[in-house]
Every structure is written in structure tokens, then in C-alpha cells.
Amino acid sequence: MRYHGSVHRALLSTAAIGAAALALAACGSSDDDGDTAASTGAATSASTAAADSGGGEAQKVAVLLPDTQSSVRWETADRPLLQAAFDAAGVPVEIHNAQGDKSAQQQQAEQAITNGAKILLLTNLDSGSGAAIQNLAAAKGVKVIDYDRLTLNGKADYYVSFDNVKVGELQGQGLVDCLEAAGVEKPNVAVLNGSPDDNNATLFAQGYNSVIDPKFESGEWVEVADQSVPDWDNQQALTIYEQMLQKADNKIDGVLAANDGLANSVVSAQKARKLDPIPVTGQDATLQGLQNILVGDQCMTVYKAIKAEAEAAAQLAIALSKGEEPPAGLVNGESDDGQRQVPSVLLTPVAVTKDNIADTVLADDFVKRDELCAGKFAKACEEAGI
Ligand code: BGC
Questions:
Q1: What is the Cα–Cα distance from 198 to 194, expressed in whole angstroms?
Q2: Does residue 294 contact residue 380 with C-beta atoms inside 8 Å?
Q3: Distance (Å, whole) CA 140 – CA 119
Q4: What is the mean pLDDT of each run of 10 residues along the chain (386 residues)?
Q5: Rg (CA), the chain
Q6: Can you tell me the distance from the alpha carbon of 250 to that of 384, in angstroms, rounded to the nearest whole number?
Q7: Can you tell me the distance from the alpha carbon of 239 to that of 227, in angstroms, rounded to the nearest whole number?
Q8: Given this model, what pLDDT does residue 2 score?
Q9: Is 10 exposed, middle or buried (0-12, 13-18, 19+ CB in 10 A)?
Q10: Nearest alpha-carbon partner for 284 in 90, 74, 47
């Protein structure tokens, strides 16, 4: 996996989100005459692409989500935000979830194509099954956007995701900061990686290993365990972490957990053994992850603005519908799928700790204060100034 022009990409991503947002805004006003879009080149072309779709003319998109158990994000964030983004862009959409079943996802793809979908937005369950779906789509002239996870050796026309190596770097640096704050000398550290079948998990690990491996190599930290969690399964993560604790005689001082679900398995195991909270990382800024952070059971998470991810996907779907180039500035990188460079929209992830929950996920309306601070979390919110 290779990314190009990382600095350039980071700079462009804000402009790209702006272009997408403007295009969606332009789309939303029924009698848009293009005036609102005249101020910048990017906005003009974004608006043109949207306007050209002629409202009802955009071709049907089918979204194929992976499951509900590897992360709550797919149903709590991606589904509603994708629905809203496609609605706002005037693109007809149907959304399915394969619930972890690869053949079910293939059937959903076949069914959607039979029902007239001309574009698939695919979050694969692994690259093999994803590539099979993409071959099938290509044979029927259906375009595919890889959504969040890149399909290796696939046929995707575009890839929409975040800078996933950067996600891992934020997790690695988060653990460094949290362990420093905890003041543990020569900490015992365990690593819970995501699913070995998910290309993102490989990229996350590439990112955090670049930060934490030097700590192990210098002897500053001790690596007590490093294991992958098949399918990101939280139940398996609990079992794996229990075994890690068993082996380490309960002496684990910090955990690099690749997402909030895995982090919560660590939190549960620590509690079950009546051990003190330790620094644990996460990802997805789920409600549970954020609440674990508020009460000090988890140290940080990585917020990925799924609204921007969904809006970028809607813009690309419009471009594909019309056989046009996407809005200028939206595509800001390339990702190597093993055979080809796939034009990519790669957004920027943000590290979230107790200190910036208000300025990030709450400011973005990604989570609601009422939900975050409900019941027993009210006090923690107050203490954190939220
Ligand atoms: C996504 C993460 C998610 C994980 C498990 C990854 O591909 O990028 O956001 O937590 O899959 O679903």
C-alpha cells in the first residue's frame, strides 16, 4: 500500500470537504441557478456535477455495509449519514448490511444489480469476497466505489476513506502520551490488532507500530503480547485479552486496541478481574468509547468524520452516474490495491481525549451531548467541562 503526497493531501482534504458541502448545499436548494457556486473553481465544478445529475436523473446506488459486530459505526453512523448524503445529493439509494456473511453480501450485490443499481458502494468483508463482487459488477457494467476499506486486487473505480496510516499513528502517539501521564516506569504493553483480513487493520498497524516499536526496541516499554482479532470480533477480543492477562500475571499497564469495540473488551476484562483502569486506545468515537474516556477507563479514540466520508461518496456516485470527472479537489490521493492505483478521497482523522471531546465530536454533532452525558455520565461530563 502506497500513498502519495501526504502533505498536499492533508491540505486538500479541507477544500474537498468544502467543495462537497457546497455541492450538497447547492443541490438542496430547488431553484439553484449556480450563483452560490460562482465564488471558487472547486465549488463551481462541484455544483455543476450535482446540477448535471438533474435531480432525479442520478443512477441508483446500492450500499453494501459489512456487519454490526465489528463496530457499531456501520449502523449508528454510516447508514444514517449515507442515507442523508445521498438524499441531499438527489441520488436514489438502497442500503444493505451483510451481518458478517460474505455470501450474503454477494447475494445483496447481485440482487441490487438485478434491481437496477448502477453503482455499488462496497465495504468488503475481506479482499477476496470484495474482488468477487467487483468482478461481477464489472461484467454487468456496474461501477464500484470502495467505501472505507480498500479491496486488494479489485476493480474499484474510486476509494473513499481516511488516511488510515495516520489513524494508527494517532493511536500510537495517544498511547505514548497516556502512559507518560500515568507515569509507569517500563510499562508492560499489549497490542490488540484489528482483523487480519481487513486492509485497514494492516494500515492502522503500520501507523502505530512506527510509533511504538521503537519503544519496545529501546527497552523503554516491554511488549507482553501482540495479537490480531479475527473479524474484529469483540467477544473473541475479550477471550484473547483474558489470556493475555493470564499470561502476564495481570501485569499489563497499557493496551494499543485498534478500535473502540476492542478497547471495551479490554475494559470489561480489567473490571471483571477488579484491576485498576489502564491507558487503552480506540477508534471510531463511538458513544461507548467516548463514555469510557469520560470515566477514565479508556484513554483516547480516533474520530473519523463519517459525514464527510458519506458526502464524498455521494459526490463520486454522481460523477460516476454521469460519466464525469468528480468535483475538483475531491479526489486527493491514490491507493495501491496491489495491481492498480485507485483514485482516492482520503480524509483526515482526529485524536480525541477527554480534553477535546467538546471541540470535536460534539462540535461536529457526531454525538449528542444528551446521549453522551446521560445518567451516570452526567457527573463525568460536568467534571470534564462538557
Ligand atoms: C474501519 C473502522 C472499524 C473497523 C471494524 C475498519 O475497516 O475503518 O472504523 O472500526 O473496520 O468495523
A1: 7
A2: yes
A3: 11
A4: 37 41 38 32 36 61 97 98 94 97 98 97 98 98 98 98 98 98 96 98 98 98 98 98 98 98 98 98 98 98 98 94 92 97 98 97 97 97 95
A5: 21
A6: 30
A7: 12
A8: 39
A9: middle
A10: 74
Grid coordinates of 14:
479541507
Q: How far apart are CA 14 and CA 12, in angstroms?
A: 6
Supply the pLDDT for residue 18: 43
Question: Residue 245 and residue 347: Cα distance in Å, rounded?
Answer: 36
- Residue 321's pLDDT is 87
State the pLDDT at residue 83: 97
By most ligand atoms within 8 Å of CB, the mutation choice from 1, 198, 262 for ligand 1 is 198
Mark residue 194 as left, alpha or beta (left: phi above 0; alpha: psi -120 to 50; beta: remaining).
beta
Ligand 1 site: residues with CB under 6 angstroms?
70-71, 73, 148-149, 194, 198, 200, 232, 259, 283-284
Q: How many residues does the chain have?
A: 386
Q: Give the residue whose CA is nearest to atom 6 of ligand 1.
A: 200
- Beta-bridge mates of residue 119: 61, 143
262, exposed or middle or buried, with CB in 10 Å at 0-12, 13-18, 19+? buried
Q: What confidence score (pLDDT) does residue 180 get? A: 97
